Amino acid sequence: MTIDINHTRNYLKDFNFKNLFIEELGWDRCNNKIDIALDGSSFNLAAVAEKHGMVVFACNPLRDGSFPDYSLRRKIERQAAKSVHEHIIIYADLDKTSQIWQWVKREADKPTACREHTYHINQPGDS
């Protein structure tokens, strides 16, 4: 499968995660949803795609349109891990200018390691 870098960049910039993963990267469709209530807010994790047990979720922003802070993102991730062990959560702001991609590496006998990458629409998206 050949990846079209221009399509990939456009999907990323347009916050079109479903087409990015399914059409461009060849992942499978997934319709899982996880509703999480934390710290007076409720978060809906909507599955974007799935590949070999790894599920990508998109998380709705806070009421003010921003994404949750790091501490709250970690709480959301821990709740999601109860339903789907291996996953990526993409947090996006309401204005669709920024994204935070979160993945937690889990290894036996080692502490979990949270990895996050922030993307802004004015970046090329190569990373």
Overview of the structural elements:
The protein is built from 3 helices and 6 strands. With 127 residues, the protein is α+β, with helices and mostly antiparallel strands. It has one domain (5-120). The chain is globular.
Q: Could you list some keywords that capture this structure?
A:
globular; 3 helices; 127 residues; six-stranded mixed beta sheet
Give the biggest sheet.
Answer: 6 strands, mixed
Q: How many β-strand runs?
A: 6
Strand content: 35-45%
Mean pLDDT: 94
Low-confidence stretches at least 5 residues in length (pLDDT < 50)?
none
Distance between the termini: 20 Å
What's the helix and strand layout?
Blueprint lengths: L4 H9 L3 H8 L8 E6 L2 E11 L2 E6 L10 H12 L5 E6 L5 E8 L7 E8 L7
Parallel strand pairs: 3-4
Antiparallel strand pairs: 1-2, 2-3, 4-5, 5-6
Helix pairs in contact: 1-2
What's the gist of this structure?
It is built from 3 helices and 6 strands, in the order ααβββαβββ. By secondary structure, the chain is an alpha+beta fold.
